[in-house]
Amino acid sequence: MESIFGLLTILFNLTLVGGVVMFIFKVLKFRKKSDFKNEIDNLQAQISLLRISLKAKVKKKSFTFRSQFPKPLITGDLIDTALNELIENKLETGKELQAYFDLSRRINSFLVVNIQGYSPIEDFMSNDFKNEISIIRLIKDISSLSARLNKRSDSYNLTNQSAKLATVDNLIFTSMIEVNRIFNDTPEVHEETPPVAKKPAA
């Protein structure tokens, strides 16, 4: 009888210990899940704020471009449409960011035709160098944070199959090559001082 009682006591203790261990494991798992979710929420918030700033900078760029044309633009013509598309771009995907660079190049080509001696520092830049550098930095930051967000979301989804989080666009686009080139090869970018550019003829 005593041996049976002793065996039951051991089983009870093992069950109790097992329950405690399981409880601790669940608490740690919940905490890890909560930490992951908080980090993901923070990354999403950062990206949203940076994108708001990016859109404001691009809108300013569109106004800068528009002010450079010697004559008022006709509503609905090619140049006016391109400038409006620049502002309306959501800048949320790699495709949309590539469209931003393509539109900027197209607008610059119009300026080259309309202004004698006009020669931008880069074919996608306006003459507001400080604003251009801000745009490039914002794009790089958003791209970096998006990659980090996707990595965290993938890790979260591995242990939460029933409630997976959606990933964001990785922001892979052709003109990122130019962005990286400017950061790696142009000291003026880090000094925020524009290099010498050709002035339009008087």
Textual characterization of the structure:
- The model is unreliable at 193-202 (pLDDT under 50).
- The chain has one domain.
- It has 202 residues and is an all-alpha fold.
- It has helices spanning 2-68, 78-88, 94-114, 129-158, 176-185, 187-191.
- The longest helix has 67 residues, at 2-68.
- The chain starts with a helix and ends in an 11-residue tail after the last helix.
- It contains 6 helices and no strands.
| Helix amount | over 70%
Number of domains: 1
Q: Ends: how far apart?
A: 111 Å
Q: Output the structural class.
A: mainly alpha
What portion of the residues fall into strands of 2 or more residues?
under 5%
Radius of gyration (Å): 28 Å
- Taking all residues together, what is the mean pLDDT? 82
Count of helical regions = 6
β-strand number: 0
Order of helices and strands: HHHHHH
Reported for the largest beta sheet, the result is: none
List the helices and strands and how they pair.
Layout: H1 2-68, H2 78-88, H3 94-114, H4 129-158, H5 176-185, H6 187-191
How would you describe this structure in keywords?
202 residues; mainly alpha; 71% helix; disordered C terminus
Question: Quick gist of this model?
Answer:
This protein has 202 residues and is an all-alpha fold.
